[in-house]
Amino acid sequence: MRGVSVTYCRYISQVPWRTLCFTPPKLLEHEMRRTITAAIIALLATLLALAGAITPVSAADQPIWTYFSQSGGTQANLIGKTVNSDLTGASNLGGTAFVGESSNGVAKLSVPGSIEVGAITTSQVASPFGTDGLQITSKAKIGGIDLLSGAIKIDAVETTNIARATPSGFSKEAESKLATLTIGGKSYPLESAPNTTVEIPGLAKVVINEQISNSGPSGIETKVNALRVTLLEDFAGAKLGSTIKLASSGINILNGGPSNAIPVGGFCYGLAAKVKAKDISVAVPPLPYLTIPSIGTGGKLFTNSTANVDIPQGLLKVGAIECAVSGLSDVGKADAYAETEIARANLFGGLITADAIKVKSHVSKDSSGSVEEQSMEFVNLKVGRKVIPLNVKPNTRINVLGLGQVNINKQMTQSGYSAIIGVEVILSVKKLGLPVGAQVHLGVASTYTAASS
User: Which residue, among 392, 311, 387, has the nearest Cα to 353 in the 3D structure?
Assistant: First the structure.
C-alpha cells in the first residue's frame, strides 16, 4: 500500500474483550454449542475472505474451551487530536474449535508527526495441546518503525503471545523481539525483561516487552505489547497522557461444560479492497473492523470508528465510519445485530459518491422460528452520473464504463444468516493501482446464528 495514509479516530467501545470473557458471570452459562452447520460456513466464505472468520466449533467428545484472541500492529490514543487508532492490521479468532487460524496485514501506516511504520502482519492459530488441551498462538510483526518524529526508532518488532488450557489448568508464555531499538538517540538491548521501563526526559515513558496476565480456575487472560509509549508532555498536537502501543496481542480462554445456548456470530466494516494479483500497489484491509463473539456480547452494543480513510490519487476517500455490533447467546434463543454507517464517500475520483450510507443486518432465533433481515439507507448516492433512488431494489446492478460492475444494496439471506454490502465494485479495467477483478466494498454487515439442533 504505497503512499497510503490512514487516519483513525476514537475507539468508542468501552468494554474490552477481556471484560466480555471474564466479567459477566452469565457468559459461562451461555457458551456456544458445538455445531455450526456447513451451510452457514459456506455462505460466510465470500465475506470472510475479506475479514476474520468465526471459527467452527469443536468436536462433541472434547471439553469446551471458549476463547478469543486478537493482535494488531499499532494502537493509538492521541488525546487532543482527531486521530485515534484501534488495532491496525488486526486479525482475530474466536469460538471453541481446537483447530483454526486467521491472518491480516497492512503494507504501510502513517499518522503524520506521530506514527510511521512499514508492513504489519498479524496471525492467530488455535491447535490441540496435550490431552484434551488447547493452545492459542497470537502474533504481530511490524517493520520500519518511527515514532514521535524520530524520538523512537526500531527496524522491526515481533510479539508472540501463547496461552494454553488443559483439564489440569492454564499456562502462558510470551516474548517481544526488537531489532536496533533506539530511544532518544540511545540504543537498547534487543531482548529486554518483561515490563522494562525507559524514560525520554520531558517527552515520553516507554515500556518495553509489556506483559500483563491473570488466571484462575475458570480461565486465563494474557496481553502483550512490544512497546507502550506514554507522552509526558504535549507533542505534535497530542496531549500529555496520550499513548501508542506497538505489536499488541491479547488472548482470553474460558473453560466450561456443555450448554444448550445457541451461538451467534457476525461482523461489520466500512471499507475494504480485495485483490488476488501479486503485483498490486494498493490493497485495503477491512476498516474499521468489528466482530460478534460466538458467546455474544450479553446484548450490549459495542462500536468502533475511523475518522477518515484517504488513499492517494483519488482511489478511495471516506469520511467518518462507525461500526456497531451486539449479540445475545442464550438457551433456546439467540440474537445478532450489526450495522455500519459511513459519511462522505468518494470512490475512484468521484465515479461513486454519497453523503451518507448506512447498512444493517439482523438475525434472531427462538422457539417460534427465525428472523433474517437487512436494510440500506443512504443520502445522495451517485454511481457514474446516475442518482440512485432511495427505494432502490436489493441486488441492483449497474455497469459503469471505464470502471466495471457496481452492485447496490447487495443482500444475502438464508435461514439463520443475513448479510448486506451497501456498494460493491468489481473492476473490469485496471484502476488507480488496482487490477482487473479487484473488489471494493463500501458498508458491510453480516450476522448469523448457529443451528438449533
Answer: 387
**CA proximity to 49, closest of 274, 291, 340, 278:** 274
Helix (H) or strand (E) segment spanning residue 45: helix 38-48
Q: Are 20 and 219 in contact (CB under 8 A)?
A: no
What per-residue confidence (pLDDT) applies to 180? 80
* CB of 267 closer than 8 Å to CB of 325: yes
Helix, strand or coil for residue 203?
A: coil
Residues 342-384 pLDDT 10s: 999 999 989 999 999 999 999 999 989 899 999 999 999 999 8
Percent of the chain predicted with pLDDT > 70: 78
Q: What angle do CA 284, 285, 291 make, to 5 degrees?
A: 150
> What is the rounded distance in angstroms from the CA atom of residue 230 to the CA atom of residue 215?
27
Containing 21, the helix (H) or strand (E) segment is helix 17-22
Nearest to 227 by CA among 319, 146, 344, 301: 146
Count the Cβ atoms, other than its own, within 10 Å of residue 366: 15
**Who contacts 29 (Cβ-Cβ below 8 Å, separation ≥6)?**
259, 261
Residue the block writes with cell 500500500? 1
Separation of first and last alpha carbons in the chain: 45
Q: Which of 218, 223, 53 is nearest to 126 (CA)?
A: 53
The set of cell numbers assigned to 259 is 450448554
Taking phi over 0 as left and psi of -120 to 50 as alpha, with beta for the rest, 403 belongs to alpha
Distance CA 257, CA 340 (A): 35
Domain coordinates in residue numbering, the chain: 64-256, 264-449
Whether 453 has a pLDDT exceeding 90, the answer reads: no
Grid cell for residue 156: 522491526
Q: How far apart (Å, rounded) are the C-alpha atoms in residues 72 and 126?
A: 17
| pLDDT tens sequence across 221-250 | 899 999 998 888 887 777 788 888 899 999
Q: Are 73 and 245 in contact (CB under 8 A)?
A: no
406 three-state secondary structure: strand
Asked if residue 45 lies in contact with residue 39, where contact means CB atoms within 8 angstroms, the answer is no
More confident residue, 85 or 155: 155
Res. 153: pLDDT tops 80: yes
Name, in order, each residue with C-beta under 8 angstroms of 169's C-beta and a sequence gap of 6 or more: none
Contact 301, 290 (CB under 8 A): no
Name the β-bridge partners of 410: 421
pTM of the entire structure?
A: 0.58
